Amino acid sequence: PPSPKQRRKPAGPSRREGGQKIIDGQGEGVGSPRKARLSTQQQQHSVASRDKVFITEVFSAATMAVPSIFVAAELLGLGYSAASFRLWATSAATWAHCAASVAYHLDNAFRGSLDHERLSSPFRTADFCFMHLCTFTYGWALAPRTLLFNLVALLINSSCVLALLWRLHLGQPGSKSDAHRVVGCIVYFTSAMLHRGDMTNYARIMLSYFVGGIFFVASPKLGGWGHGIFHLMLVPATYSVLRSMADA
User: Fold this and answer.
1) pLDDT, tens digit, 9 for 90 and up, residues 100-135
2) Rounded to two decimals, what is the model's pTM?
3) What is the C-alpha radius of gyration for the chain, rounded to an integer number of angstroms?
4) More exposed terminus of the chain, fewer Cβ within 10 Å: N or C?
5) Residue 22 belongs to what H/E stretch?
6) DSSP one-letter code for 113
7) Distance from C-alpha of 23 to C-alpha of 13, rounded to nearest angstrom
8) Which of 238, 205, 243 is nearest to 68 (CA)?
9) Distance between alpha carbon 146 and the CA centroid of its chain, in Å?
């Protein structure tokens, strides 16, 4: 009996027609059915990825507005005339960052920006600049009478902002180090609570940032939804700042 190798159907003769290699009557060139199927699948995958980016980025933009809505509710509850200047300043910084962050996420959504494209976005630069405005303003609101503390905070945050603007001017993309510097500024401004012995609000705000940070880091594994959940965790963090600020 013939061996398995002998029973195997031999490949048909190859030839070229119109610049395409033909084997057993099947084209393997650019216009072949197999190539066309692969191209269609790649296009469908690209469209699905863009749609997913749109939905998750809109979600991130919507959730970024929640902390600002909370701050506005706090102002309404106190009454505008009774609100202190520090509360107004904290609210203004929060709203400014909200506007920049919402613009950044909506720009990503409508452009379908991928990760490497987002790092060069001027909206990302604005988002991070206003983060530093918030960390400085929150620190000042928590320790309004500590001059040295606020001078150091001003120096650190302003240098980070200048670095962000300089890289944008040079056309250089951002990096993860930008987020690391924001984390450092958060650690610094929250130390004002420790200095005053406000352990309750300090524990509350650090827990909020910790849980939010877990979702932020895990966002790629969560299909991009973790970033928006991180924004929601800014609500208890903002609440802690306002409560501690009232006792400062």
Assistant:
1) 999 999 999 988 766 667 888 999 999 999 999 999
2) 0.79
3) 27
4) N
5) strand 20-23
6) -
7) 6
8) 238
9) 32
